[in-house]
Amino acid sequence: MATYYIGVDLGGTNIKIGCFDADINLIEKTSVPTGAEMGPEVVADRIVASARELLTESGVSLDDVAGVGIGTPGPANYADGIVIKSTNMPKFKNTPLRDLIGKNGLGRPAILENDANVACWGEFAVGAGRNVTDMIFFTLGTGIGGGVVSNGDLVRGAGGNAAELGHVIIYPGGRKCNCGQRGCVEAYGSANSTAARAVDAIRAGGESTLKAVLDKKGDLTSKDVYEHSDAGDELAREITEGTAEALALMCVNMLHTTEPAKIVFTGGMIAAGDSLLSRIKHHFKQLVWTLKEEPLEICYATLGEDTGIIGAAALAEHAGKQGKLT
Amino acid sequence: MATYYIGVDLGGTNIKIGCFDADINLIEKTSVPTGAEMGPEVVADRIVASARELLTESGVSLDDVAGVGIGTPGPANYADGIVIKSTNMPKFKNTPLRDLIGKNGLGRPAILENDANVACWGEFAVGAGRNVTDMIFFTLGTGIGGGVVSNGDLVRGAGGNAAELGHVIIYPGGRKCNCGQRGCVEAYGSANSTAARAVDAIRAGGESTLKAVLDKKGDLTSKDVYEHSDAGDELAREITEGTAEALALMCVNMLHTTEPAKIVFTGGMIAAGDSLLSRIKHHFKQLVWTLKEEPLEICYATLGEDTGIIGAAALAEHAGKQGKLT
């Protein structure tokens, strides 16, 4: 009986592949350079060859693979398994990646999903959200990625582009976002915007121990800002409070939209640890309604660096159960 | 074969009941006073008796009724069909209304849902949203009610309280909302808050043709504000622009959350007609990202006064298909 799953995490630099059992326990994993410059067919062939090798190492027969999950950056037509284009892989244009890897590659059914949804699904299925049916997921990095799980399923939207949560407007008329809007949560709550707001505040004349770092390096990271905030710098503290408040506003707004039982944060900035999470929770309590007590849990993700392959395999398992693997 | 549906719209003053065929075409309808002061058992008995009469008038046998849909104001435990309490029906306390009407009343399976979700489902199933899979629904009245349909199903949330869209915060630190939060869309975009903002602006010294109305009546309605706006009063125009902008912000934020194909507005304030809808669309275009063209359609509801019974019957039909009638 086919009860193993392959999870593929396709990035611009590396491809990670994992072989999983029916309970989405990792058996073996591997990583190979993407080689995107050689074009999508070569990339797909590389994924197929690496997956075959991985199965051999894992002692799993290809016939026992029930499905292949593939996570990829958008934009894509996920329903048809086609990558429309890719910033990091310019030769990918309307590439039918799902079928190149799946039925025409490994000869097994597959599903393609955007990487934020894949990571969200991993946390939902076997990570921080494994005991709930409704969850919101935020990745705090360069920008803010999102995922929405409602009643045990991903919310994909009318065109497969739901959960662009970084572009929910929280401060109308506020900071300009790369997307063309103003006041997006991404312009306040991401790692990059946390650093950028600190740079702006110092350049506007604010006093801070960060000034010496900025003068020396010419720029700041969110890590710098959190370190100086934790060390007692007032300007850095105000900036990190602003980050937490922006994210707490999103928690309130998501509560009133899809009513998650858990909101899960991940991404580079969660290295800030308790000084971020406890402040988000604090601001959430300040901002949320008083009509009734809300049991919403706000927490960090638990899966770590293998989230992409775990989520992809878990998604293949879920799609298989729904008869949605192609 | 059981192919008829009964839709019940339970309000504090009147109960509306409709008998529908399998395609949710209305056969007959009736309306009786709620008589809430006599307690929930009497109300349930009245609904059961009225539904029986209605079936007789419709020439439909009770055996041919596949399901009963009941819309009621919250808070309720919808999964178990229990009304927890009701502002307009104070004798309702942990009342198992679904079973009183359904299996223990008419002897037919039933479903209980909050009235905003029922209206949303009616528009989705047979109204403005009948040709889409993802929709957002707003009722603009005293407050703002909401409904979210994702991938062909209502989003109910972890505790059955999703889609409290009136309490999404759009202006942090802004106007106080009855819920205890500040800056909720309900405090800007509802009929009541449109009138209240006009009153506040005039009392703060603003010049307006509305001042004479306020002096005479002691208060304003949103209808007054739209009439004076349409007649060229500048203060009234600014207030109605503010209403449209608040609602447009919600459209942007819902687009990036569940990516609806349609956003449907209903409620008393849509009597304002094109002067509201065209301004919402205008502000949406101003506010939304430029990354890609968004095919989102923003429109008014189409079902009118029978929405409650239509939605309840349509929801019973849908729940029946899913095996979720009890």
Give a concise summary.
Two copies of one chain form a homodimer. Chain A is of the alpha/beta class and 326 residues long.
Q: Using only CA atoms, what is the Rg of chain A?
A: 21 Å
Distance between the termini of chain A: 18 Å
Number of domains of chain A: 2
Largest interface, Cβ cutoff 8 Å = A-B, 49 and 48 residues
Count of distinct strands of chain A: 13
* Cross-sheet strand order for the largest sheet of chain A: 3-2-1-4-8
Fold and architecture overview:
Two copies of one chain form a homodimer. Chain A folds into two domains: 4-121 and 305-321, ATPase, nucleotide binding domain (Nucleotidyltransferase, domain 5, 2-Layer Sandwich), CATH 3.30.420; 132-301, ATPase, nucleotide binding domain (Nucleotidyltransferase, domain 5), CATH 3.30.420.40. In chain A, 40% of the residues lie in helices and 21% in strands. Chain A has helices at 40-58, 97-106, 115-126, 186-189, 191-203, 210-217, 222-230, 234-258, 274-287, 307-321; strands spanning 4-10, 14-20, 26-33, 65-72, 76-77, 82-85, 93-95, 110-114, 135-140, 144-150, 153-154, 262-266, 297-300. In chain A, a hairpin with a 3-residue loop joins strand 1 and strand 2 (14-20). The radius of gyration of chain A is 21 Å and the shape is globular. At the A-B interface, helix 8 of A face helix 8 of B.
